[in-house]
Amino acid sequence: MKQSSTDQIDHELLEDWIVEQVFDAIIERQLPPGHKLSEAALGKALGVGRMHIRRSLLLLASRGVVDLYANRGAFVSKPSVEEAQEVFEARIEVEPNITRLAVTRASKKDIATLRQHLNDEHQAHIDGDRRAAIRLSGQFHLTLAEIAGNEILTKLVRELITRTSLIIGIYGSAGVSNCHSDDHEKLLTAFNDKDGERAAQLMVKHLHSIQQHLSFQTGENEGVDLLSVFSK
Amino acid sequence: MKQSSTDQIDHELLEDWIVEQVFDAIIERQLPPGHKLSEAALGKALGVGRMHIRRSLLLLASRGVVDLYANRGAFVSKPSVEEAQEVFEARIEVEPNITRLAVTRASKKDIATLRQHLNDEHQAHIDGDRRAAIRLSGQFHLTLAEIAGNEILTKLVRELITRTSLIIGIYGSAGVSNCHSDDHEKLLTAFNDKDGERAAQLMVKHLHSIQQHLSFQTGENEGVDLLSVFSK
DNA sequence: AAAACTAATATTGTTAACAATGAAATTCTG
DNA sequence: CAGAATTTCATTGTTAACAATATTAGTTTT
Fold it and tell me: What's the CA B70/C1' C7 distance, rounded, in angstroms?
């Protein structure tokens, strides 16, 4: 079950692979905030022993993507307003610099990859493939970090976009997708011009715009709870 | 954050506590790079079951502070030159911004804390208490992050200063401590002046100066290996 | 004596059983 | 019938035994 296409040599830690799977599932909105992650179910779904699941859940918790409650288990994190603000603050502090760095280091091939990314994103919008659109818009940011070429920062961005996906799932207006692809488009032109400063500025604006399309003013997460109860 | 070193309010995850202990031991240079972390020994030292140790080692590995080898166990990470450069690059990208943020948010009490920190650091230097000096100079950066008030970034800084301690342990000249307290002193004046921009600039210079006092030119980590073997 | 092979030991990795806790269902009571 | 109490069930948490692997020590051979 685990030796599939995106899998590499399994000397890479099994736990890392599990974490990646859960991350992806969250980014694609298949695991909504608050969803219970039962050890047995996850283990069966991924074809992996319970102990591996257990250890992976700890990793996920340390990345703020899962909440652990003693004797009750693991749940996909339901970020509070404060946590959500912290995620965006961290992104705004970090991603513009990463973007500036990426511009200085982007090869022609990298820019082509970004171009392809944008095309896919555009296509997904046309096709109405919401899931793909969400995934791609998040991964655009991840690709930027990879181009910047710093593993520590890449890992951080991966955590941040995953948590952002949870945040949008809770506080996002219904129809609004993760990112406006227009913004990504502008970013790419800055890459073509090798204008790192402009790219960084654009990233700040982009993140602010995402943030502004959220509705934090409610004050009660309980409302969301009720909705999810009724949806059963 | 914690009251005492032998803290045992166990509603916080036990694994987090274990990770913190190892972090601190590494920062204080009690656990040198390459040191074997046997599960049994660690468990006995901390009075904790093997499974908790096991899970904690995974967390430490995901933070780049421990290297795991299949069927061979866990070892305190011995950062390669490339990894070391990544750590410093990440610090330079992140910490100046964190510092700028900290300046805008520092209360008088926060500044007093920093002042106290510097005094302690100075005193440790006078007393020749090398271990305390090392710990305090690292924790100065951590305190800055705490003042900035973003948990995500604080956690990142904690990871980065721990890894920096490993790097200095390998590539640092013998007598050179972690930071020049002069730099910290200047930073504090920028805090007093509420000059975030200057503080950020100072932080960049400070990190560069730490980086420049390392000797990366060797090319062979093996030389370090031999030394550590002979030291037994 | 050095190298290679083999045996012994210790450590890691995995599994399964069991205990502890929380959630759910049923029964009892007002 | 509503609500509290109790029992049942499912899930998590822990422990211990066992298997697999690497390291060490010892032995043999050249």
Answer: 24
